[in-house]
Amino acid sequence: SSISAPSHYAPSSAFLGETSSVPSCVAFSTLDSRLLLGGYADGTVRVYLREEGTPQLSVYVGLSPIKQVRSSATTKLITFALDENGVFFILDHAVEDREAPQVHGAVGSAETGRCTAFDVPPEDKTVNQLFFGFENGSLQLHVLHQEWMSASRNDRW
Fold first, then answer.
1. Nearest to residue 61, comparing CAs of 96, 38, 36, 89?
2. Is the N or the C terminus of the chain less surrounded, counting Cβ atoms within 10 Å?
3. How far is it, in rounded angstroms, from Cα 21 to Cα 142?
4. Are the C-beta atoms of 115 and 107 separated by less than 8 Å?
5. pTM for this prediction
6. Going along the chain, which residue ranges are E strands?
7. What are the backbone angles phi and psi of residue 112, rounded to the nearest 5°?
8. What is the pLDDT of residues 39-91, one digit of tens each?
9. Do the beta carbons of residue 68 and residue 110 sit within 8 Å?
């Protein structure tokens, strides 16, 4: 089967005929179907509105390619991202400083190795849970507390 009316999104600019950035992962927003998320090889996370061909927001999180992106199932305009080095990021697109990660850090330890994957439950609307996988084969379930979240959020785009 094919897509009958594809939409095209142009997140990267071209310089001398080469694409400056390529997507390494994509996701739909869980709580706002208008939003599309893209993680890029240049270390950025970009947020698109379905109606727009260019990103509404581009957040540079580091030098490593983004391996995975997910939206929060409990709080609108929160994006979780993981880079290829196992660094986990929480982005809040509803705060004034939305072009910087609100929280970031390596999730793994010497015992587990780096974080290689994560997920959030799509149906749990009461608690922000994070599920991590590690190089040593272990899995961990964490509950994300909201202390880091700004009280002055504007989640209307």
1. 89
2. N
3. 32
4. yes
5. 0.82
6. 14-15, 18-19, 23-28, 35-40, 44-49, 57-60, 66-71, 78-83, 87-92, 103-106, 115-119, 128-134, 139-144
7. -90, -25
8. 999 999 999 988 887 888 889 998 899 999 999 888 888 899 999 999 999 99
9. no
